[in-house]
C-alpha cells in the first residue's frame, strides 16, 4: 500500500487516475472470477454434454471387472456407463436398488453397457449388508475421500449419471428412479444415438 | 401457528431494518434529526423482534415440531434437549437467523451509547448496520431463497408429494398428518457436530464476525462525514478488541474440535473455510496494531480504512464462500440459492467502500512523517505488511481453484504444503517483530536504544537455543527434516518470550522499588494502569505459547499406522502400546460402538489405558473418537481407523505422537486473559458521563484536513 507522507503543507492529493483504474480493474476482475465460480457452483462441475475426466474406483472385495479390482473410466471406452451414487444409510436409494440391478442383468449380456456403483460416505460393513440385501452384482466400490462425488458435485444420494460411448455425459437423474423401464429408456436412447 | 408467527416477526424485523435505513437517509439529507432518531430507535427494535423470533424457533426445536422443515432437518427425537436447542445454528436457515440475531444485539448495543459528541456519525452507523441486518434477515424472509427457518411441510392432496413452503399451497394439508405426529421423526443433526466444541465454535466465530460490523460502520461514517481524525478509532477500539477476541476463540475452538473429533491428529487443515475465517482475523489483527499508529502519530489513516474495509469484506466473502457452494469443503453448507444474493451484496459493499475511500483519499493524509526505520510505527508497519503477506498467500490459495478452473477447466486445489511453506517464514518474522516492536519508541529509535533493551534477553535466548539443540543431539530420534526450521522457530519464540517477560519484570521491579511495594502487587497495579500495553504483552506471551504448540505438532509429529492383533505390543516414540481388548456393542441411543482398549507403558511402567472408539450412528455416519493421553510434553493420540471393520482380534490403528500440542490450548486461555485486560473498561473519557467529560480537554487531535 502506498505510504506517502506528505508534509502538512503539501497540497491535497487524491488518488491518481491510473491507480484508480488499476484498483477498479482488480476489483471487477475479482468479482468476475467469483461470479464465474458461483455460476459453476450453481450448475455443478459436470454438465450434460461435458466429457467426463478420468477417475478410478477401487472395488469392494468380491467385486471385479475383467479380473481387475480397480476400475477407471478409460476401461469402459465404447460402452454406455451408468454411474449410480448411493449409500447404505440412504432410504431413497433402496427404492431403486432392485430396479438398477434388474436393468443391469438385462443388459449385461450385450456387453455395451456397464453399471458402476459408487458408495458415498459409508462404512464397509453397512455397505456390504446393503449390497447383499439387494443382491447387487455390478461393480461397486467406496468413494474414498469422496473424490468422485466431488468431481460430479453430487448434491445427495441417489444420483445417477449416464455417460455415452465417447465419455460424454448425456443424462443426469437426481433422486431415485421410479421404475426399471425408466432406466432402460435412458440407456436405449444413448445406445441409439 | 407458532411457525407462522415466527415468520411474521421476521418480516416485521426485516421491514424495521429497511425503514431504519430509509429514515436515516431521509433524516440526514433533510436535516431532520427526528428522523435520524427514529432510525436509531428502529434499529434498537430489531433486537427484541429477532429475539422473539429466535425464542419461537427454539420452542419449535425443543418441542420436536417436525412440521417445521428446519426442525426436521437438524433434530431428531433421540437428541438431548441442549443439542436440539443448539441445532439452531446447525443448518443454513437457522444459522442465518442466528447471525442476524447477534448482529441486532450489537447494533442495539451501539444505539445505546452516548451519541452527544458524535451526532454526525449516527445516521451512517445506523445505515451500515441496518443494511447489513436487512440483508441477512432478507435471506430468511424472501421465499425465493428457500431459507425460511419457519417454512412448514405441506403434503399435496393431488399426488401426495411433501414439500416445505412458507405459505400453504393450494390443495395441500399439513405434514405430518395428525395420525403421524406422534411417531414421525426428524433427520437429526450430523453426529460430527454433536460435540461441545461444535456447539460453541460457530457462535464464537459469528460473534467475531458481527462485532466487526460496528467498527466498519463507524469507519464508513467517518468517510462519509469527512470527520477523518481518530475519533472513529477511539470509539470502536473496544468493539474491535472484543470482535477480535471472539474471532480468535472461534478459530481456536474450531481447531480443538478438529483435534478431538475429526480424527486426523491435527487441528488445522488449511481447508478453504478455515482460511475464510482466518483471513478477516489477519486483517483485523493488522488493524488492531495499525490504529495505534494513527492514535499516537496521526499516520496510516488510509491504511486503517483499507484494513477495516478489507476485514468487513472478507467476513462477508468468507460467509459467502461457506454458504454458496463455490468451494468444496468439509464445512460447507448444502447447496443453496443464496449465493447470487451474497455475490450482489459483496459487489455493492466493495464498490461503495472503495468509492468512498477514493473520494476521501486526500482528507486522510498523514499528520506526521516516518522518521526512523526502527521507530515503533515503522516496525508496526512492517508487522502489517507481514500480516498482509500471509493474507495474500491465503487469498491466493482460496481463489486458485477458481482461477485454474477458468483457464484449464480443472479445479486444482492447493494443499497444506503450499500454505505452510509460503506462510511459515512470515509467521516467524511476525513472532520476532512481536518481541522487538514494543521495545522501540514512537517517532525515533536507533540500533543503540533497541540494543540496550534487547541484549539481556537475547543472550538468554541464545543459551536456551543452544541447550535445545544440545538436547536434540542427545535424543537423536527427534531430529528430522524440519529440524533446522524448528531451531529457527524455537529461537524466535524464545526470544519474544524472554523479551516480553523481561519487560514485565523491568517495569514491575522499577515500580516496586519506587513505591516500596511487593513485586507482584507492582505487577498487578502496573497492568491495571496501562491495560492496553500489558494486555497486549500478555496476548503476545499467549501467542508465544501457542507457537510452541504449533512448532511441536507441525515439526515433530510422528505417526504410524498398524494393524494389531489382540495382545500385541508395539514400540512407538518411546511408548509401549498394547492392544488389550476390543468391544463392539450397541449404545442406548442406538449407535454402534466399537471400542478398543490399549494399555500404555513407558520404560516398563504402566501409564494409563486409552480407549479409542469408532462409533457408527443409526444413519450410517461414523464418528472417530481418539484415545488421547495428554501432557504438557506430548500427546499420544490413538484412533481406530475407519472404513475397514475392526474385529475383536485384529484392528487397524493410527497412532500419532504430538509433542507440545497442549501449549497451543494453554496459550489460548492466556490469550483470553490478555484480551480482557486490554479491553477492560478504564476511566477513559469515552466511558465517563457527559458532564464530567465536558470539563476535560478532548483527547483526540483536531483533524488537519478540511
Structure overview:
The complex is a heterodimer of chains A (193) and B (706). Chain A is α/β, with parallel strands linked by helices. Chain A has two domains: 15-44; 56-192, 3-Layer(aba) Sandwich (Glutaredoxin), CATH 3.40.30.10. Helices cover 38% and strands 18% of the residues of chain A. Chain A has a five-stranded mixed sheet, covered by helices on one side. The longest helix of chain A is centred in the first third of the chain and has 27 residues, at 17-43. Residues 1-10 of chain A have low confidence and may be disordered. Chain B is built from 20 helices and 13 strands. Chain B is flat, with a radius of gyration of 28 Å. The chains are: A alpha/beta (193), B alpha+beta (706). Chains A and B meet through helix 1 and helix 3 of A and helix 11, helix 12 and helix 13 of B.
